Amino acid sequence: MDWIDGAAAAVLTTYRKDGRAFTRPVWFRWRPPAFEVVIAEDDLKLQHLRRNARCSLVVFETAPPFRGVAVEAEAELVEGDVTEVRAEIAGRYLGAARGRRFAQERTKPGVLVRLVAGEPRTWDLAAILPD
Fold first, then answer.
1. Number of folded domains in the chain?
2. For a tag on the chain, would you pick the N or C end, based on fewer CB atoms within 10 A?
3. Cis amide leading into 32 (omega within 30)
4. Are 39 and 93 in contact (CB under 8 A)?
């Protein structure tokens, strides 16, 4: 899954108290065997995960060959200073310098969310795309 080290799009689904899905875009990094996301302390996604750790993450390319991976997991919430992780993840999307600046400007504490990819579902449309 070399493609996953780039700035792939991703969406995280958590679940509201009434069971309805809450799906939002996120930035992530892949650190085998887990996908990692930083979520701000006051974010609804984190409130959902503290109540119900069940969630799913879908990571996908928006250009050919349109590869992707979907993971369903129980989130592990890691408390602590997330500045460096936030900078690294942001750097994947913004470049290293802008990623560091982005992380330094975030004044809200965050939590590292780890999703261990037990049995991910993957796809690659390269074989069915027209030449």
1. 1
2. C
3. no
4. no
- Note the Cα 67 to chain centre separation in Å: 16
Domain with 99, as residue range(s), is 2-118
List of E strands, the chain: 9-15, 21-25, 29-31, 34-40, 54-60, 68-74, 76-78, 110-116, 121-123
Identify whether 24 is part of a domain. yes
The answer as to whether 28 is a domain residue is: yes
**Whether the model pTM is above 0.70:** yes
* Residue for token pair 């493609």: 3
What does the pLDDT look like over 4-45, one tens digit per residue? 888 899 999 999 999 999 999 999 999 999 999 999 999 999
